[in-house]
Amino acid sequence: MVKAVDFIEANLKADIAVADIADAVSYSLYHFCRMFNRITRHTPYDYLMRRRLSESARELAETDKKIIQVAFDYRFNSPETFSRAFKRVFNVQPYQWRKQGSLDRRVLMSRLTPAHIQHINKGDYLNPVLEERGAFQVAGVMALVKDDQEVIPLLWDTLAGELADIGSIDTGGRYSGIAWYPRGWQKRGYLYLAAVEAKPQAVLGSALVVKTMPPSKYARFIHKGPYRDLGLTLDYIYQTWLPKSGKRTAGPFVIEDYGHKLGHPDDEASETGIDIPIK
Amino acid sequence: MEPTIVERDQILLAGFSFFGDPFAASGGWTEENEIGRLWNRLGAYMAHHGDRIKHIKNPCVYYEVHITHAETAEKGHFEVFVGVEIEQLEDLPVDISAKMLPPTAYAVFTLKGGQITSDWARMIYQEWMPGSGYEEAYRYAFQLYDQRFKGLDALDASVLDVYVPVKPVREAARAS
């Protein structure tokens, strides 16, 4: 199936049909559709269209090419069919997307690499449980995270230090890493809060930021493996699971639930709860 | 694998239909896809309301028909019809669909065990058909499920026939 993905990626601007992809990997159309879906969790046609739309979205945000040119480059018959498909998948019109200028990983479909495929097929960790959570308060240390994620372990160390001073009277002992993805986060970075649950009237050191998380519905996934692979899980959640689920995100943030262990695990066997706010 | 060539009259079927990519919800060979869903619906219907369908030839024999449409090559969307054979269309309940297969010759392939989940479509159309002296007569094929099929979890003990409509390749007209 990696070969099939390679073929699709090499032909995003070419006039290919699903039958051509099946031929390229020497499967009958019927067998190919079955296998492709089992391994990638997308139908071949869905993957092809989402990739075409995502690459065209990238070009709209990064270049000055006319919308009509991008539409024809990616094999749409007319600006109208392009616009309709774009709106259906990304919930905005192409010109609105271009104006808005942000590249949101949460919406664009990235190329499925062998790492993605292997990660998805690791097991049944990628089917979520839906749950409601009431409002809760957290206290922690926050920073802007850019190209590398090395600041995150530092945040957890800093939090550990602060908590050692405070003691656990006013904290709930449940650790969460909360990431916020503001507009333009791919270029400017995202905000990460390494936090512990705090009682509403807690008296805490002034080095800590206190935040109240609103009540919300969440889809809880279990990410298995080291922290550095979290991106693969998030790609699956936003690009594969979310579109199929019929649900939408309720806010531009993600909660990593570490239970009673101070965050940032690094071994293959560790499990982290990932809560995505949905509506 | 060599097929048996048989001639069949028109086949009238009563059952349920799906159009699209049957594996959109889930690929693989579990029942968690549209084909599995069709079978579940049909099984439930036959168990509770099977008496509403008149003139069933054999209630223990089921057909799964795959039909190519205009969009099939482009999008991988096709039609799947599952049903039982009926002698005639009389008083068909509104919640049951009918399918009429034309009279034609069929190449019948008998699949056993692991062959059932292999890429038999490729074997039939890309390997057997060219050079067989036959070509596709209609753009559909069906699988016949009878008592020889023991279930998805007992494939090793199962036997399944695939029927492919064929006609002899016409000799090129000779100029005289």
What descriptors fit this protein?
heterodimer, A: 279 residues, alpha+beta, Arc Repressor Mutant, subunit A, Multidrug-efflux Transporter 1 Regulator Bmrr, Chain A, 2 domains, 8-stranded antiparallel β-sheet, 8 strands, 42% helix, elongated, B: 176 residues, 9-stranded antiparallel β-sheet, 3 helices, 16% helix, 36% strand, globular
* Largest interface pair: A-B, 24 and 25 residues
Shape of chain A: elongated
Quaternary organisation: heterodimer
Reading side by side through the largest sheet of chain A, how are the strands ordered? 1-6-8-7-3-4-2-5
Number of helices of chain B: 3
Domain unit count of chain B: 1
**Approximately what portion of the residues of chain B adopt beta-strand conformation?**
35-45%
Point out poorly predicted stretches of chain A: none
What CATH architecture of the largest domain in chain A do you see?
Answer: Alpha-Beta Barrel
Describe this structure in words.
The complex is a heterodimer of chains A (279) and B (176). The model of chain A has no long low-confidence stretch (mean pLDDT 86). Chain A has 2 domains: 100 residues, Homeodomain-like (Arc Repressor Mutant, subunit A, Orthogonal Bundle); 153 residues, Regulatory factor, effector binding domain (Multidrug-efflux Transporter 1 Regulator Bmrr, Chain A). Chain A is of the alpha+beta class. Chain A has 11 helices and 8 strands. The radius of gyration of chain A is 21 Å and the shape is elongated. In chain A, strands 1-6-8-7-3-4-2-5 form an 8-stranded antiparallel beta sheet. Chain B is of the alpha+beta class. Chain B has one domain: Regulatory factor, effector binding domain (Multidrug-efflux Transporter 1 Regulator Bmrr, Chain A, Alpha-Beta Barrel), CATH 3.20.80.10. In chain B, strands 1, 2, 3, 4, 5, 6, 7, 8 and 9 form a 9-stranded antiparallel beta sheet that branches. Classes of the chains: A alpha+beta (279), B alpha+beta (176). Chains A and B meet through helix 2, helix 3 and helix 4 of A and helix 2 and helix 3 of B.
